[in-house]
Design a protein that fits this description.
Elements: H1 2-25, H2 42-52, E1 64-69, E2 76-82, H3 88-105, E3 112-115, E4 119-124, E5 138-141, H4 150-169, E6 176-183, E7 189-196, H5 202-219, E8 226-229, E9 233-238, H6 265-268, H7 271-312, H8 328-334, E10 343-347, E11 350-356, E12 362-368, H9 376-388, E13 397-403, E14 406-412, H10 419-423, H11 434-454, E15 458-460, E16 469-471, E17 477-479, E18 486-488, E19 494-496, H12 509-514, E20 516-518, H13 519-535, E21 542-544, E22 547-549, H14 551-560, H15 577-590, H16 601-609, E23 636-640, E24 650-654
Antiparallel strand pairs: 1-2, 2-4, 3-4, 5-8, 6-7, 7-9, 8-9, 10-11, 11-12, 12-14, 13-14, 15-18, 16-17, 19-20, 21-22, 23-24
Helix pairs in contact: 4-5, 11-13, 11-16, 13-15
Length: 670
């Protein structure tokens, strides 16, 4: 019985497709009002050359071809558009079949259009790139009526098509395409598709699709499936799934050019055109040099204006590139419907799930909470920032997903979870010997240095903490979670904010009390991280007999008393005690209350890599809870004996003991 039902289902589906195809074949693709051409004429040759050249553009993998060829009245413009789930070879085959069909049905018309289930091919002798056109319009429907309430079906259909319109119109110049499904009456699934030619603006795409949707009640009322096709857009709904997964676009694939003017063979022999070309080329060179000079002179002013615009309105829209956007259903399937068994953790802005794409790639998906404090600003901030950043010590963003109120961020999967998972768990921290911890400290430092000085814009993270440091399979650290990050100009060192965001314990005093953040705010957070990694303790408190003492106060008091070794995690061996004590010293330099006294990340990286560099004396850290301990004399500094591997104690020396009578504390430039 099941076999009979399946056969009947397949037969009805094929029958419905045949009905649509039969009606499509009755369309009139040729426009006799726009003029004709003669066989083997210049226009005819240009047309054949242009349409046959599509297959040569192998770098195009997003199914949109818009080119022109020829000159003057013989110039031909053509657009080829395939469905978003067609592979490049399938797309080119469909377009080639359409080209053959058009040649048979329109043997001499200068303007023609052809639609199939998979693609649309159009050519004309006038410019059509970026122009929204509604005519000619054709529509088809299934000879299969809706079961159940027609009103309920129409309501669900309209909601589905409006949602698809919004998604398709938000695409970029490579693809404006969307598919999704919804439940109609009697739990019947409606599969929908909306597509525009990507050369349209978002507004024109929306307008074209809205007009196509408005035709559904006229052509397809009460029908379970139908479609409306126009030169600039098309929609389709169906009781059966007719599309596959939307193909990802290669990040390196360039958008299709709006025009690709190629001179015909007749124009190459024209002497006057050659002279004009030479004159134009010279003029272009002069113009380019002039503009370059102007650009170099106004570069700083332009950057300043762009930054001020960003600060004036934090709600300004940030455009996304289509290759970053993933299909929501694809991500949902990859995470097994965001199953609890795939849940990696829960953060302040939402849960993180492990997933696996159809190609086997493992991903981590951050599903932002609908009621979280992160709004459009933070979401866009994190997407745009991570998309521009590439560094081995920064987590890599693979894409994002949007559907309704759902917001997803897709990251590379980092297998060893976050630093806090290992460093603060007594049963897990033995996995992190000192070599690994020192490697993690230096990796974090390199990542922050990249953010502060080496990336295109100076980036202040503002939420550096152990839970935002992920560890890959080789225990390399990767800084994550840029939702709180802020961009500043390269020559700007400080900024203010009325929104204090971050994690207490890691936040610098000037930021907590006055809303002032700078690169030195991140330096403070990094100092806290160093002390946590060395000690294996959270910054919130350490048991000191009957009293609780915060980590910064404990480290400072121990260092002043010459007992900095007490800060070191007891589970670590003593083979690298000099490095441990040096890291404690660097950490205390980073958490000084006065931000001017804190070193830059460039100096910190140098300190971590050069044992011969003496370190300045740190001042009292911010939020120090015990001021009764006397201060060290200003003429003294800590120096660590790195020349004798057998010695591991910190040595307190006076400046007078220096052999060359110079202060042992070597001040370094800031």
């Amino acid at each position: 019985m099941a076999s009979v039902s399946f056969t009947l289902f397949s037969f009805l589906r094929c029958l419905c497709v045949i009905v649509i195809l039969a009606q499509s074949s009755a369309q009139t693709p040729c426009d006799n009002t726009k003029g004709n051409y003669t066989i083997n004429s210049t226009y005819h040759n240009n047309l054949n050359t242009l349409l046959s050249s599509f297959s040569s553009y192998t770098q195009i993998n997003y199914g949109f071809y818009n080119f022109s060829y020829g000159q003057g009245e013989d110039k031909v413009y053509a657009i080829g558009l395939c469905r978003g789930d067609l592979k490049p070879d399938e797309c080119l085959k469909s377009l080639n079949d359409s080209r053959v069909s058009l040649a048979e049905r329109c043997p001499n018309q200068k303007e023609a259009i052809w639609w199939t289930v998979e693609c649309m091919l159009r050519y004309t002798n006038r410019s059509i790139f970026g122009v929204m056109e509604n005519q000619p319009t054709n529509n088809n429907y299934y000879n299969l009526n809706v079961t159940g309430s027609v009103e309920q079906f129409n309501t669900a259909l309209e909601s589905l098509m409006r949602n698809l319109t919004r998604i398709a119109a938000s695409g970029d110049s490579r693809r404006k395409y969307a598919t999704a499904s919804a439940y109609g009456s009697d739990f019947q699934t409606i599969y929908g598709q909306a597509q525009c030619t990507p050369d349209l603006s978002s507004e024109d795409c929306t307008k074209c699709l809205d007009e196509a949707i408005s035709i559904i009640p006229q052509c397809c009322s009460g029908k379970a499936g139908g479609n409306v096709v126009k030169p600039s857009c098309r929609i389709r709904f169906d009781p059966y799934s007719f599309y596959g997964p939307t193909l990802n676009i290669d990040l390196d694939a360039p958008p299709s050019p709006s025009t690709n003017n190629t001179s015909s063979s007749q124009g190459k022999s024209n002497t006057s055109r050659t002279i004009i070309a030479i004159v134009v080329s010279v003029a272009c060179v002069v113009l380019v040099l002039t503009l370059l000079c102007i650009y170099l002179r106004l570069r700083k002013q332009r950057k300043k204006i762009e930054f001020e615009r960003e600060e004036e309105s934090d709600e300004d829209e940030i455009s996304f590139t289509e290759p970053l956007q993933n299909n929501f259903n694809t991500i949902r399937i990859a995470t097994n419907g965001f199953a609890d068994s795939n849940k990696l953790g829960q953060g302040g802005f939402g849960a993180v799930y492990k997933g696996q794409l159809s190609n086997g790639q493992e991903i981590a998906v951050k599903r932002l909470s609908r009621d979280s404090g992160q709004g459009d600003l933070e979401f866009k901030n994190e997407v745009v920032l991570l998309a521009k950043l590439q560094h081995r010590n920064l987590v890599r963003l693979l894409g994002f997903g949007l559907e309704g109120r759902e917001r997803l961020l897709v990251y590379e999967f980092v297998p060893n979870k976050s630093l806090d998972y290992l460093i603060f768990d007594p049963t897990m921290k033995p996995q992190l010997n000192w070599e690994k911890r020192y490697k993690i400290i230096r990796g974090i430092a390199r990542g922050i240095l990249y953010l502060h000085e080496d990336s295109r814009l100076r980036i202040i993270h503002r939420d550096l903490k152990a839970s935002n440091i992920l560890l890959d399979h080789e225990m390399n650290p990767k800084i994550a979670d840029f939702g709180m990050a802020r961009l500043v100009l390269m020559d700007q060192t400080q900024a203010n904010t009325s929104r204090i965001v971050g994690t207490y314990g890691y936040m610098a005093p000037e930021y907590v009390m006055h809303g002032q953040f700078s690169v030195k705010s991140d330096v403070f957070s990094f100092g806290v991280l160093i002390l946590e990694i060395v000690s294996g303790q959270k910054n919130s408190g350490i048991n000191n007999g009957e009293n609780m003492e915060d980590l910064l106060s404990f480290a400072w008091r121990s260092w002043k008393e010459g007992k900095a070794i007490n800060v070191v995690d007891p589970s670590l061996n003593n083979n690298s005690r000099n490095e441990m004590l040096r890291c404690i010293h660097i950490g205390l330099l980073c958490v000084q209350e006065n931000l001017v006294d804190r070193p830059t990340m460039a100096n910190i990286v140098l300190m971590l890599n050069s044992y011969s560099l003496s370190l300045p004396i740190p001042a009292e850290p911010a939020f120090y809870m015990n001021s009764r301990t006397r201060s060290l004399p200003e003429t003294q500094s800590w120096e660590y004996n790195s020349r004798e591997t057998g010695s591991s104690e910190a040595i307190l020396k006076s400046a007078q003991e220096s052999e060359n009578e110079a202060s042992i504390t070597e001040l370094y430039p800031r």
